[in-house]
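User:
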Amino acid sequence: MRAGLATAMLLCPLAFAEPAAAQPKVNFEQAFADSFTALPKEELAVSGGFYVPAYSSVAMSQGKLRVDFSVTLSVHNASETQALVVRRIAYFDTAGKQVESYLKAPVAVKPLATVSIFIPTDDVRGGTGANFIVDWAATGEITEPVVEALMVGGVANAHYAFISQGRPTRPAGKK
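Assistant: Predicted structure:
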């Protein structure tokens, strides 16, 4: 009886705990306003795209344990002189279904500036085979952007962090 009472006392606070509040959606354009510049008036003559593997969940311990990770997708404009126009940032799940689209309209990223998307650890909609598609363009020849995802998570006292680099989905070049 005492063991049952002790268990009930330990679990009682859980009965009154409020569910975790949904994280407010961050306004991408506001969050990175300092990284943006005006869209170029010239024709966007060069374009490219990246596929970026991401892992919001990873199976461990022979598949008996699932570890969830936060994901930070970063898009770095590697050009020192030109704006990089980001046309699309889309997040997909393991089955290839689009989970989220992050841009309402194209944005121009200043030379050497970076923008990023953060997916919290408790957002496991992407699953073990999550990925991003990032489409970009520029007015002329430009250093190809650097696009990568950083995953961070842990279980017990073990913490893990790893990077997944984007891979071009089509050659950068003229339209």
